[in-house]
């Protein structure tokens, strides 16, 4: 009986080709991915800096690409997007990628606190080299995720070359079985953005009859290889926080006629630092020195600029001219107990070295206090410059030293001063650590790159508005909005600064070829098996029953 049923089953396949799919479709379903969604990923990425300084281009000039992902060791042409950890790529490799590859995607460390000092220095030097170059290919940075780790491992084990594979068969099998990735970023074409930096200043008026003014200044922006990742804790959230804390301390002393100092104190916070050649302070000085009413900066004794004062090194005074004995800079140097570094202003350089040089060019005595030994320190322009408890401790200590030195100079306290006077001022100069920590964490928790803080819908918004409100608690504050000359701009910023990357898991072309051959061979076998099934059945029935099946 079962032979008769088998005969009926054979008749079904004898003349109807579509029924072959009853065999083929289940096999295709089994071969399909269990989770198709896992074949694609979506991540936020941050584009490398793009700006022009005196019409000289810097940074990345492109934004979109659709390329095959490759590792540092397997890429070869402009059709590849190189994907790597930022700590793995060398400056020489970046130079080669810059000139030959189609795009570059760098993954930041999972936790920068576990990096060795050598690794941090390597990343900082790489960032400095990248910013100084003009890069035609799109360059993006992204935060570490477990998915990125898997992608990096797949790319590192894919496309094994002959010299790395044990045998030719191993290389062939690896090329067929390896996972590839198509990386796509669709972002707007880079466009110029309207930048309006804001300078905030407030003044504590000294005793009548003393025309002298002391300027205490810092820039509050930050610099990193990617604008949206530029948190700048040391450079220069620390300087901005110090200005706010010094304003709080001396506003208490100047609020009483009995403790008010002789010189007036002018506190200044500017929006553009060394990356844009201190444009804000330059415009601010022009507005207040070249105008008919220049009373704000009349008889300036000296300008003290604060830059990067929370790193581990001791404070150092940077000057354009060696401080002369009897002068104000020498007085501050001796009272603070800091060494000095002398560097002449070189107007031929693309950017000035320190904040105080803008004052010195206008013949105002000035200096910069910093924990950095040199203006070329790569930590000034790093995405690794983030908040830490150690840096907070250094900042509190350095603000205290600066406050004591400044107060000692203002009130002319000497070693012979009575202990009562010293105790009185030490008590008045106490640092409010809670306030310092709050502002240090606030400024260090967000990007303060000029692309972000100078291009809002209203100039006085975000960080600038917060600093203006904080400083206005201690004195009357004025905010000056500066504009860039559109005919001959000193600098130009570009957007976009961030985008979304889509990573699709794909197989290499050779896999498609082999899969096609395998499918054709499989269908051919199925076709002939079904076509010859009746003949096979007749022979089998004859063998089992000893009779020929008659149709």
Automatic annotation (TrEMBL):
The chain crosses the membrane at residues 20-39, 509-530. It is found in: Endoplasmic reticulum membrane. It is a single-pass membrane protein. It comes from Diatraea saccharalis. The keyword Membrane applies. PANTHER family: NICALIN. GO terms for biological process: regulation of signal transduction. Pfam families: Peptidase_M28. Its main location: endoplasmic reticulum. One of its GO terms (cellular component) is endoplasmic reticulum membrane. CDD domains: M28_nicalin_like. Keywords: Endoplasmic reticulum, Glycoprotein, Membrane, Signal, Transmembrane, Transmembrane helix. InterPro entries: Nicalin, Peptidase_M28. Residues 200-252 form the Peptidase M28 domain. Belongs to the nicastrin family. This is BOS complex subunit NCLN.
